[in-house]
Design brief:
It is a single chain. The protein is α/β, with parallel strands linked by helices. It folds into 2 domains: 128 residues, Up-down Bundle (Four Helix Bundle (Hemerythrin (Met), subunit A)); 204 residues, Translation initiation factor eif-2b, domain 2 (Rossmann fold, 3-Layer(aba) Sandwich). Helix content is 39%, strand content 19%. The strands form 5 sheets. Strands 8-7-6-9-12-17-18 form a 7-stranded mixed β-sheet. Bound molecules: 5-S-methyl-1-O-phosphono-5-thio-D-ribulose (MRU). 5-S-methyl-1-O-phosphono-5-thio-D-ribulose binds next to helix 2 and strand 11.
Length: 360
C-alpha cells in the first residue's frame, strides 16, 4: 500500500540480501522508521516487542528469522531450536508456528549447506503468497460490501473494524481492510469506524495511519462506542481480522473483538472475519477453552505512550501508583456470532462443515 505516496510492503530484503527491513510499528504514526533484522535474535525481539505485529506479518518475519538462523548454523538441532525460539515469541497467532514449521520443513529437506539459501527463498515466496492471499480476500470481501451497498441508496457504506488487520499487519493489502481498499479502487464510497483498541491502540495509531495514507475516510472511536454506533444504525458491517480460528469456526482476535461481535449480533449488523487459511488451526475445536491467550505486560494498561506537544515520544501513567492491572491481549468470539469467514478461497459460514471444505 502507499507510504508517503509510494507503494511499500511492510517487510523487504536488503539489496545485499544480508537482512530484512521492516517498519517499526512501535513508533507509528508519529515517526516512520525502518528496523533491520539481521539475526535470529533480531527476529525474535521484533516479534516479541511488537516492532512487527499482526498474525500474517509475524509469520513472514519468523520465516526470514529462521533463514537467518540457518546462515549461522544449519544443522538439524540448531534449526529446530531456532524454530522453537521463534514460535515461543508470541503464543496466540497460529500463523507464527505455521510459517516456522513450513520453512523448517522446506529447509530440512535439503543438505545443511543449502538450507540457508532455500529458507531465504522460501520466506520470500511466503511474503509474495501473503500479498496474493490478501488480494483475494479483498476481492471476495468486496462482493459482500457490494451486496450491502444496494440497501444504502448511494450513501457511504459504514464499516467498523477493531485493532489493525490492515496493510501493516500483513505484507501488503491487509485482511480485514483489503475489501475496503478494493472498494476504494472500485469507486464504492466507504467510511471506516476505527476502534482505538486499548491497551496498545493499534486502531488509533496504526489503522488510522494507514487509512490516512491511502486516503480512506475514517473516524477513530473509543472502544466502548461500537455498541452505540451499531444501535443507532451507523454501522453496516463489522470486519475484523483473526489470529487463530478453530475447526468449528471460533475466532481468536484482539481483545475486545468478542464485545463487538455481541453488539453486532444484538443489532443485526453482519460480523465478518477476514481469515487467510494460514490462520486456521484445524487441531482445535473449542476456541474459548483451547486457544492460548497471550498475557502481556500490565504496563501496557497502566501507562500510555504518545507524542507530546514538542514532538517527543512520552509515556504517561494512568492509574494510581501500585495499582494492579491485567492484560489479556486476545479474546475468542464464538462461531455463532460470526456471519461469515472471508478467505482467499471465498466466503464461507463459520461452521465446522464449511471449514472442512477449505482444502489445505
Ligand atoms: O497484538 P497484535 O497487534 O499482533 O494483534 C493483531 C490482531 O489482533 C489482528 O487483528 C490479527 O493479527 C489479524 S492481522 C491481519
Amino acid at each position: 500500500m502507499l507510504l508517503r505516496g509510494l507503494p511499500t510492503r511492510t517487510i523487504w530484503p536488503t539489496p545485499e540480501g544480508d537482512a530484512v527491513l521492516t517498519l517499526d510499528q512501535r513508533v507509528l504514526p508519529h515517526r516512520v522508521e525502518t528496523v533491520r533484522i539481521a539475526t535470529l535474535a533480531d527476529a525474535v525481539d521484533a516479534i516479541r516487542e511488537m516492532t512487527v505485529r499482526g498474525a500474517p506479518l509475524i509469520g513472514v518475519t519468523a520465516a526470514y528469522g529462521l533463514a537467518l538462523a540457518a546462515r549461522n548454523d544449519p544443522r538439524d538441532a540448531a534449526l529446530e531450536q531456532a524454530a522453537r525460539r521463534l514460535e515461543a515469541a508470541r503464543p496466540t497467532a497460529v500463523n507464527l508456528a505455521w510459517a516456522v514449521r513450513r520453512t523448517l520443513e522446506h529447509a530440512m529437506a535439503r543438505p545443511p549447506g543449502e538450507r540457508a539459501a532455500a529458507a531465504w527463498t522460501y520466506a520470500g515466496r511466503m511474503a509474495d503468497d501473503d500479498v496474493a492471499t490478501n488480494d483475494a480476500i479483498g476481492r471476495h470481501g468486496l462482493e459482500l460490501l457490494r451486496g450491502l451497498v444496494g440497501r444504502k441508496r448511494g450513501q457511504t457504506l459504514q464499516v467498523l473494524t477493531h485493532c489493525n488487520a490492515g496493510w501493516l499487519a500483513t505484507v501488503d493489502w491487509g485482511t480485514a481492510l483489503a475489501p475496503v481498499y478494493r472498494a476504494q479502487t472500485e469507486g464504492l464510497p466507504v467510511h471506516v469506524w476505527v476502534d482505538e483498541t486499548r491497551p496498545r491502540n493499534q486502531g488509533a495509531s496504526l489503522t488510522a495511519f494507514e487509512l490516512r495514507e491511502q486516503g480512506i475516510a475514517h473516524t477513530v472511536v473509543a472502544d466502548n462506542a461500537g455498541g452505540h454506533l451499531m444501535q443507532s444504525g451507523r454501522v453496516d458491517a463489522v470486519i475484523v481480522g483473526c489470529d487463530r480460528v478453530t475447526a468449528h469456526g471460533d475466532v481468536a482476535n484482539k481483545i475486545g473483538t468478542y464485545l463487538k461481535a455481541l453488539a453486532a449480533h444484538d443489532n443485526g449488523v453482519p460480523f465478518y472475519v477476514a481469515m487467510p487459511l494460514s490462520t486456521l488451526d484445524r487441531t482445535l475445536a473449542d476456541g474459548a477453552t483451547e486457544v492460548p491467550i497471550e498475557e502481556r505486560s500490565a504496563r501496557e494498561v497502566t501507562h500510555l505512550t504518545g507524542r507530546s506537544a514538542d514532538g517527543a515520544m512520552v509515556e504517561v501513567q494512568l492509574v494510581p501508583e501500585g495499582t494492579a492491572a491485567a492484560n489479556p491481549a486476545f479474546d475468542v468470539t464464538p462461531a455463532r456470532l460470526v456471519t461469515a469467514l472471508i478467505t482467499e478461497r471465498g466466503t464461507v459460514p463459520a461452521t465446522a462443515q464449511a471449514i472442512a471444505t477449505l482444502a489445505e
